[in-house]
Design brief:
Elements lengths: L1 E3 L9 E7 L8 E4 L6 E5 L5 E4 L8 E3 L3 E3 L6 E4 L6 E6 L4 H5 L3 H4 L3 E3 L1 H4 L1 H11 L4 H17 L8 H10 L5 H7 L4 H12 L3 H19 L5 H8 L4 H11 L4 H7 L6 E3 L6
Antiparallel strand pairs: 1-2, 2-9, 3-8, 3-11, 4-7, 4-9, 5-6, 5-8, 7-10
Helix pairs in contact: 4-5, 6-8, 9-10, 9-11
Length: about 270
């Protein structure tokens, strides 16, 4: 697997880039923990994606071709019964409009076919990646294609106040402290943030804290949950447990029992709630 920072020209727009090979599925479906950010993914061997609202959703929804994932406030499920190679990137807060021509607010809470946003260029991207055989070659071609699309758009700079807020919410500042620093009312900050990020500032901060806790537990499996809760900014382990249930759909105990390969992709197994 290739997992790295994007090339320099893309760093203002994207925080992470990856290219992965086809693997062996561990389950029929998996729970995807929200990141709070917009992402773009091209699935190569099996391009269509089926997603589900929750465990009770037996039908789901199929997204065809390359996919744009809007920011979500809670976990969703996806079909992983057929494994496929993929290439993708995670966008920085406020950057969706620069690549897709719509705000994160418009993308929020759903997955979209890239063809709805890029039209014929979505299929061109899929075909261009299919021609390549190595992960690094696919990653580089993906970057080149995205840069070409970006260069053809008139780009309005994201609101620097939103960029500041998103960065500092992930570092522990409260919404009130950020609003005061920016000389904005909390209500005005809330409106600006939802437009550019697609979530409320408080929800975004909650998601980032849960992400931090899951990543730390995945990295240091022997570390206690009380230590992780404190380091991630929770008042205590009970607070962390409540937030994990609400956002990730699992408890600390079930997360450890699942032993996921990736901290934010959890196989849906019987009894793993």
């Amino acid at each position: 697997m290739v997992e790295r920072a994007p090339r320099a020209e893309l760093l203002p727009f994207a925080s992470a880039l990856w290219a992965s090979e086809k693997g062996e599925p561990r389950a029929e479906r998996e729970r995807v923990v929200p990141t709070g950010d917009v992402h773009l993914v091209v699935r190569l061997g099996h391009p269509n994606l089926r997603i589900y609202r929750d465990e009770c959703d037996a039908v789901g929804e199929t997204i065809r071709g390359p996919i744009v994932g809007g920011p979500r406030s809670a976990a969703h499920l996806r079909d992983v019964s057929v494994s496929t190679a993929s290439v993708g990137m995670m966008l920085r807060p406020g950057k969706a409009h620069a690549l897709f021509g719509v705000s994160a607010k418009e993308l929020s809470g759903a997955h979209w076919s890239l063809s709805e946003l890029w039209r014929h260029r979505a299929q061109q991207l899929l075909e261009a990646l299919h021609e390549l055989r190595t992960l690094e070659a696919q990653a580089k071609r993906f970057e080149e294609f995205v840069l070409d699309v970006r260069s053809r758009r008139e780009i309005a700079s994201p609101d620097p106040r939103v960029v500041f807020a998103a960065g500092n919410l992930g570092r522990g500042m409260t919404v009130g402290e950020i609003a005061s620093h920016l000389e904005l009312s909390p209500r005005r900050l809330h409106a600006l943030f939802i437009e550019d990020v697609g979530l409320s500032p408080k929800r975004y901060a909650r998601i980032k804290r849960v992400q931090t806790a899951l990543s730390e537990s995945h990295r240091a499996r022997s570390r206690s949950w009380s230590q992780i809760a404190f380091a991630a900014g929770f008042s205590d382990q009970a607070h962390l447990t409540r937030e994990m249930r609400a956002i990730a759909g699992v408890t600390p105990r079930s997360f450890r029992r699942l032993a996921p390969e990736h901290a934010h992709h959890l196989p849906l197994l019987d009894g793993a709630k």
